[in-house]
Write a structure and sequence with these properties.
By secondary structure, the chain is mostly beta strands. It is 0% helix and 59% strand. Strands 2, 4, 5, 6, 9, 10 and 11 form a 7-stranded mixed β-sheet that branches. Strands 1-3-8-7 form a 4-stranded antiparallel β-sheet, with no helix packed on it. A hairpin with a 5-residue loop joins strand 5 and strand 6. The chain starts with a strand and ends with a strand.
Length: 115
């Protein structure tokens, strides 16, 4: 089993920044992709950013140039640096880690951006 603990959400004004962290523990050998998703009220959960085991990254068009995903392999932690936040970034953010082809989700952390 793998446990994920997310931290870093909160309330910020438009134009501000937040950094989310997601630490994995348990059977974390052979982590494949690490990713962040988000779900706004009455909307489906969607991919925000993903980083592969080799370090390649991909972003949703809506966050390109503003968000940066990174990871610390030694700490089994994935980060999401969010800059120039907009009210439409308001959502619950979930980390997702694939370990040996099994998918694990964090509990979610709320990000609210005021205009």
């Amino acid at each position: 089993q793998v446990q994920l603990v997310e931290t870093g959400g909160g309330l910020v004004q438009a134009g501000g920044s937040l950094r989310l962290s997601c630490a994995a523990s348990g059977r974390t050998s052979n982590i494949n992709n690490m990713a962040w998703y988000r779900q706004a009220p009455e909307k489906k959960r969607g991919l925000v950013a993903v980083i592969t085991s080799g370090g390649s990254t991909n972003y949703a068009d809506s966050v390109k140039g503003r968000f940066t995903i990174s990871k610390d392999n030694a700490k089994n932690t994935v980060y999401l640096q969010m800059d120039r936040l907009k009210p439409e970034d308001t959502a619950v953010y979930y980390c997702n880690i694939v370990v040996r082809l099994l998918s694990y989700w964090g509990q979610g952390t709320q990000v609210a951006v005021s205009s």
